[in-house]
TrEMBL record:
Stated name of the protein: 3-phosphoshikimate 1-carboxyvinyltransferase
Domain Enolpyruvate transferase: 45-466
Gene (name only): aroA
Annotated InterPro entries: Enolpyruvate_Tfrase_dom, Enolpyruvate_Tfrase_sf, EPSP_synthase, EPSP_synthase_CS, RNA3'P_cycl/enolpyr_Trfase_a/b
The protein's Enzyme Commission number: 2.5.1.19
GO molecular function: 3-phosphoshikimate 1-carboxyvinyltransferase activity
GO terms for biological process, alphabetical: amino acid biosynthetic process; aromatic amino acid family biosynthetic process; chorismate biosynthetic process
Record text on subunit structure and interactions: Monomer.
Pathway note: Metabolic intermediate biosynthesis; chorismate biosynthesis; chorismate from D-erythrose 4-phosphate and phosphoenolpyruvate: step 6/7
PROSITE patterns reported for this sequence: EPSP_SYNTHASE_1, EPSP_SYNTHASE_2
GO cellular component: cytoplasm
Length: 473
């Protein structure tokens, strides 16, 4: 199947095709959201039971498409996440010359080779996806082409200065909107310069942007990571044949990549996304009588923080059939209902569960006693300000929550259901994780929880609602 014909729920206009356009396209905001919001009330639930399989890992899916598009030959990918974010990456890679097609259950990618990206003839519509935007800016930074990036209302508020800064040092030029935001136009360097860059924020996206720029930069590009973040780029770049080294020096990770790399096509099996499994881990934990197996969940240590934190709170999560899938540790998780106790969450664990805090706050709202989280400033620059959005949504549902500068303090019910939202709708702010977290809160409430818009769920986990409805049928 050609990606232009896959079912993209928002009806987003994705850039299509190639052409002989010399001028970069005009800067304009993306018109990517459907006009009508799609509200839904998530009602109290009976136990979650049986076996489910969540969607493919979003981070690995993005990187499979990007690296496949840079390898010469055919990369084959199974288990690719077919969410809107990954489809935005696929469309952008096609617009720059790669072939990305679905044949049966498999995605086939024919790459252009490192250095071979072509100038896109239309703006690259990144939709809601920060990962697509920042990693592609990295790729483009060392290709002498000009491109315009646009995004939806949420993405257009997110900071891009964090990648503009190192990529400018490599030699790329940027014309962003005020505040270093989208829409943004960039021109990659003619002769990119290898840099050594110490990450000022714990961000796998910034790390990956610099490493990807390094692929087409003669010499050695170095990223120093004081706090480890998800390491899929490092694992996959090695898998594709790049010369990449990781060393521990004085407690920091020093990552080097040798430029003018030749990438070899791969066969990739994408494991299930732990960030999607998280909603079901918490749902089965807080709904009485639940006993659910979530199959094929990626448990890369740089991603598995939530499992550890939930266990510290008293959750019963068993790892069955531990194995390796595509170079990543994977297991089936058996999750049974268990009473939770509030804890102080170690801020050091934050990068390994950065997308899981919205649903952790829901677990905390049902726990006995107080849960304190700190060091979560990064949550304020995701698809929404996730600290403020979850404080408002949980308060509307009857939870006791206090917002601090860098976290939430949650006083749990001790297992009693939340009141729910009888005549209000919680605001999701175009943020898929707020929508799914509050759906889970609805299961453990008296009146249910109504979320104002379920459309953003399709960015990362299109099958979330049918899976949830099926598990509690
Ligand atoms: O590299 C990636 O695939 C991602 C990195 C994280 O973002 P940051 O790098 O901004 O922390 C995460 O929140 C995002 O969902 C995916
Ligand atoms: C932050 C997220 O994604 P992105 O930055 O790719 O928009 C997320 O999926 O929670």
């Amino acid at each position: 199947m050609d990606i232009r014909r896959t079912g993209i729920k928002s009806g987003r206009a994705l850039p299509q095709g190639m052409g002989a356009v010399k001028e970069p396209p005009p800067m304009q905001a993306s018109t990517s959201q459907q006009d009508q919001a799609s509200p839904r009330r998530f009602l109290p639930s009976g136990p979650l039971r049986g076996r489910i399989r969540v969607a493919g890992d979003k981070s690995i899916s993005h990187r499979s498409v990007m690296l496949g598009a840079l390898a010469v030959g055919e990369t084959r990918v199974t288990g690719l996440l077919e969410g809107e974010d990954v489809m935005a990456t696929a469309a952008a890679m096609r617009a720059m010359g790669a072939q990305v097609d679905k044949v049966g259950d498999e995605w086939r990618i024919h790459g252009v080779g490192v250095g071979g990206l072509l100038q896109p003839q239309t703006a690259l519509d990144m939709g809601n996806s920060g990962t697509s935007t920042r990693l592609l800016m990295g790729l483009l930074a060392s290709h002498a082409i000009t491109a315009t990036f646009t995004g939806d209302a949420s993405l257009s508020k997110r900071p891009m200065g964090r990648v503009i800064e190192p990529l400018s040092r490599i030699g790329a030029q940027f014309t962003p909107s005020p505040g270093g935001r989208l829409p943004l136009m960039m021109t990659g360097a003619n002769v990119p310069v290898p840099i050594e860059y110490r990450l000022p924020v714990a961000s796998a996206q910034v790390k990956s942007a610099v490493l990807l720029a390094g692929l087409n930069t003669a010499g050695i590009t170095t990223v120093i990571e004081p706090v480890p973040t998800r390491d899929h780029s490092e694992r996959m770049l090695r898998g594709f044949g790049a010369e990449l080294e990781v060393e521990e020096v004085g407690g920091e990770r020093v990552i080097t990549v040798r430029g003018e790399a030749d990438l070899r096509p791969q066969t990739i099996e994408v494991p299930g996304d732990p960030s999607s499994a998280a909603f079901f881990m918490v749902a089965a934990t807080i709904v009485e009588g639940s006993d659910l197996v979530i199959e094929n969940v990626g448990l890369n240590p740089t991603r598995a923080g939530l499992v550890e934190v939930l266990r510290q709170m008293g959750a019963q999560i068993e790892e069955l059939h531990r194995r390796d899938v595509g170079g990543e540790p994977v297991a089936d998780l058996r999750v049974r209902h268990a009473p939770l106790t509030g804890i102080e969450v170690d801020p050091a664990v934050a990068p390994s569960m950065i997308d899981e805090f919205p649903v952790l706050f829901v677990a905390a709202a049902l726990a006995q006693g107080r849960t304190v989280t700190r060091g979560l400033e990064e949550l304020r620059v995701k698809e929404s300000d996730r600290i403020a959005a979850m404080a408002a949504a949980l308060t509307a549902a009857g939870a006791r929550v206090e917002e601090t500068e860098d976290g939430l303090i949650v006083d749990g019910t001790g297992g009693e259901p939340l009141r729910g939202t009888s005549n209000a709708r919680v605001k999701t702010h175009l943020d898929h994780r707020i929508a799914m977290a509050m759906a889970v809160a609805g299961l453990a409430s008296k009146d249910g929880v109504e979320v104002d818009d379920t459309r953003p769920i399709a960015t990362s986990f299109p099958a979330f609602e049918p899976l949830l409805d099926g598990a509690r049928a």
